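Quick start: what a row looks like.
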Amino acid sequence: MSEQKSKIAAGLEREFAARGFAEPSVEDLRDASGVSLRTLYKYLPSRDEMVYAALEHRHHRYLAHIFDDLEQGQSETLNTVIERIAEWMKKEASHGCLFHSAVAAAPADDRLRNLLIRHKAEIADKVSRIANLPGKQTDIILVLEGLTQSWPLQGQAAVDSAKRLCTSIGQN
């Protein structure tokens, strides 16, 4: 992604995260991206492309937040991942997962659904490798998804529960 397109995607991501996918007008999206309407459409020629770019940008930011400088070692790794997800939820996603929100806003959009699937699978694969839990991707994603989806209602209780559940993944 070019620097300009990345800057646009960052602004779009913030706008969609704050206001959802239906509410922002094209003018709102232009303002959020910090470029002219002509430049916005030059890089992202449709609203759908704006959503995809925002989600790709978020995907990379999320992976960096969770996995950069992550030390390996099963229990410590899983607890650190959960703590980092909790930090993300506090700062970035107090309403829940933006990928799920995008799919809920456009359930017939296969490209969005595939972005969601890829995003979640990549997280599960990385955690599985780093925590030395081969074949446990489904267990891992179930716990992490439970954390992100229950965070808006449960907060720290969801974090504590996710840590307990991850302990049992490593024992099975």
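That is the whole record. The longest helix spans residues 47-67. The mean pLDDT is 92.
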